[in-house]
Amino acid sequence: MKKVFLVSVIIFILSVIGNKALAISQTELNGLNYLSAIQNPDGSWNGNITTDFYSTFTVLDTLRIFNKVDSRYQIGFQWTQTYPPENVDYLTKRIILLSQNNTSFTNELNILLSLHDIDSAGWGLKETFTGEVVDTFLALQALKAVNYFDQNVISNAISYLLSTQNPGGGFGFYSGDVSNVYMTALVSMTLQQFPQTTSIATAINKATSYLIAHQNVDGGFGFSPSTVYETAFAYIALVGETTDNTVLGNAVNYLLSTQSPDGSWNQDPYSTALAKIFLDKRWGG
Asked: Any alpha helices (H) in 82-197, and if so which ranges?
């Protein structure tokens, strides 16, 4: 996604981007050093606010984005292959990892398709579960990552997602659930990956308005207090959809100001990896 700035501040940004680029480079380096230092001997990264699998997947995605596909990455990737894909959440991440590493994902894809809830057109957590928002957007991300050919399956799943959007523009974890920043950002990010039909574009616009309206006074996002991971997701969802540089700039300032001296965010590999993905988006990745 590209950065979008107000025309009125372009000259100012160009005048200071040299110094900021140096600062960002050091920030990125500190974050990478932190992630390298805390990898477990088995190749995984501990999950402080999420599971070890999610934490490891997110770190690996960050390392790939920053072209750090080295021995540490390979050990981490091998560890994920020993982790059982016990539900749709883990299964979709596994498919994405396999495709990124040019490894066959046919078996995993077939399992994912077998878990498709025909009645709702979405996905639930496991077999016999009805469709839910969180599992459906994860499935769509995996299908998009592998260029799945059946557009009917994709279109129907998108239609299901659109039907779960609340009147205020937000999304919850399931249809009828109270909206929250986390899910709204992730669904918007997912929808942005697909051709922008009128209905998709409308849903994204509503989600964008919801996110902007729920930015906290400290510039971050999330139920008070703000969190690193919700702010990172919200920024990535907003950066290509709004020209309000105050909104974007405040989110930038919040994330840059919350990095710890050891290079991490909250001494958490998941938050640190997401913050680094945010930095990549911030400077044009």
From this structure: 88-100, 106-114, 133-145, 151-163, 181-191
Q: Is the peptide bond before 225 cis (omega within 30 degrees of 0)?
A: yes
C-alpha 184/C-alpha 281 separation (Å) is: 18
Distances (CA, A) of 138 to 93, 134, 141, 145, 239: 8, 6, 5, 11, 21
Radius of gyration in angstroms for the set of CA atoms belonging to the chain, rounded to a whole number: 19
What global pTM score does this model have? 0.82
Return the bridge partners of 180, or none.
171
Token pair, residue 143, equals 């299908």
Highest mean pLDDT, choosing among 27-41, 56-70, 192-206: 192-206
Kindly report, residue by residue over 47-93, the tens digit of the pLDDT.
Answer: 877 889 889 998 998 888 888 899 999 999 999 998 887 788 889 99
